[in-house]
Amino acid sequence: MPSKPNGKPARNARSGGASSKRNAVVVGSSRGRNPVRIGPDDTDDEDLKGLDKAVALVTNGSPVSKAKSGGTSAKPVDYSGIRCLLNPVWCYYGFIIAVAGLTLFGLLMVFSSSAVDMIAKSRPAWYELLSQTAFAVAGIVVAFVLSSIPVKTFRKLAMIAMIAGVLLQLATKIPGIGSEAGGNVGWVSFGPVRFQPAEILKWVLSIWMPAALLAARSKRTVRRKPLVAFNAPPWLEKVGRIVEIFVPRPYWVPICGFVLAFTAVILGHDLGTAMIVVLIGAVVLLVGGFPLRMFVLLGGVGAAGILLMFVTGSSNRMNRIMATYGECSSEDLTGVCYQSIHGTYALASGGLTGVGLGNSREKWNYLPAAHNDFIFAVIGEELGFLGACAVILGFVVMGWCMIAIAVRHQDAYARMVIMAFTIWLVGQALVNIAVVVGILPVMGLPMPFISSGGTALIMCLAAAGTVVSMARSQTEIKAAVSKS
Q: Signal sequence span per UniProt (predicted)?
């Protein structure tokens, strides 16, 4: 029989050595019960407060176990019944199936939505399909390579990747290298090779920012020297104190890197991609235990700055916003409202089951970007409400599986990376759908895995391969994969 506790909340005793603190976080005890321990983490969870501590505990991921005579043996988790949806092994294979299914379906819909446009350009009807298939094969190879890389290697090389990603994005502003399309200066050309660095930057930010944030968290209890100790002028010390009101000094590196990535993207006038970058950074900060008060304050200031500088400062963006949430004039029907109206026509024509695969009317040069940003409208027209719901279900399964794997993962870095990829892939898909149905203004974001686009497809598959690598280091998945 376990000994009766003294009734006081159990805590990690500092006198007990650093190993006990690292090995488990003691949540507490109750009368007649042993303390509940939640397994290893590389953070000092006892220093977190409020929502930060709740997030750290919820995303800790290791099986909850009861300490027996000082031990930390885990009780097997019951995944019977409805709990099977939380089984990380099922979610691991479910994620792979969802990615494969959406990619194959995307190739089919790219062919269906682009055939008419290719013929109009005196090209074979399957020209875009062959091009997208080549990109898919390249993306699968990249995903396979990344899936075999250990988690610690991603963490070590994250800084180098971040520097390279930002430099590539800034190269879009170099004359002769950067090129423009659709009003966005977001492409880089090296001879016959042309790609979009912002897609690479999203992947880079997703693996770098968690590593930088964990490094900052490990330094937050270290006593910091004032800036004057580094021969900095007094005015710089005052500026540093003002900045610390918004961002504690240990977090300067991840926040500055995040702001740099956002700035590099927004310089190319790509507000849609910049929004995804913001979502990635926000999720990493929230899940990573960034102080909630600072998070809200920094988010409010950032949102106000973006609204004033990049939305109201552009007449084109304001026109698109007004067209979405206001009424379109007769002039707008052939201008700023044209694409969104024909996207609505396509969805309305589809009905419940659609007009049939390949029978879309709007793709006959009525709907701009029918095989790219507005491919969901063609899906709704040809496959109807049921087909559109099937696509949404695919992304729901993908997102659920990634979250379930992250919650059950023992490694803090892997958890944060998986959550960053979740908000990128699933969040961007939801934004794309919201644009097509008229909830959000047109902003030029493709649908992951489905829309036509080489760089986007390759990097989405690269993200999937990275998630597979992170998932394979999870205890239950690692055991299941080793048996197969």
A: none
Q: What is the pTM of this model?
A: 0.81
Residue pLDDT, tens place only, 39-60: 344 444 444 443 345 444 444 4
DSSP 3-state of 195:
strand
Distance CA 28, CA 33 (A): 10
Contacting residues for 255 by C-beta, under 8 A, at least 6 apart = 247, 298
* Amino acid 322: pLDDT: 74
Nearest to 464 by CA among 88, 199, 99: 99
Spatial separation of the C-alpha atoms in residues 384 and 284, rounded to whole Å: 36
CA angle 224/228/234 to nearest 5° reads 130
In this prediction, residue 220 carries a pLDDT of: 59
CA angle, 85 then 91 then 92, to 5°: 165
The 10 Å Cβ neighbour count of residue 253 is 16
Extract the tokens encoding 231.
């021969």
Residue reference for tokens 């949404």: 392
Give 239's contacts (C-beta < 8 A, 6+ positions apart): none
Dist. CA 259–CA 174, nearest whole Å: 21
First to last CA, the chain: 40
Tell me what pLDDT residue 81 has: 81
| Tens of pLDDT, residues 268-283 | 878 889 889 999 999 9
Q: Using CA atoms, how far apart are residues 427 and 95, in angstroms rounded to an integer?
A: 16
Low-confidence ranges of the chain (pLDDT < 50): 1-52, 54-73, 221-223, 227-230
Domain boundaries, the chain: 103-219+242-482
pLDDT (0 to 100) of residue 142: 97
Phi, psi at 410, each rounded to 5°? -90, -20
Which tokens sit at 358? Answer: 């390949």
Distance CA 348, CA 23 (A): 57
What pLDDT, on the 0 to 100 scale, is given for residue 482? Answer: 87
* Backbone torsions φ then ψ of 152, nearest 5 degrees: -65, -25
Distances (CA, A) of 393 to 94, 102, 457: 12, 10, 19
Strand, helix or coil for residue 269: coil
User: In Å, what is the CA distance from 275 to each residue of 80, 261, 325?
Assistant: 39, 12, 19
CA triplet 175, 177, 162: central angle to 5 degrees? 115
pLDDT (0 to 100) of residue 92: 95
Three-class SS state of 27 = strand
Contact between 347 and 381 under an 8 Å Cβ cutoff? The reply is yes
pLDDT at 306: 74
What's the pLDDT at 46? 42
Q: How far apart are CA 437 and CA 4, in angstroms?
A: 60
Distance in angstroms (rounded) separating the CA atoms of residues 449 and 136: 9
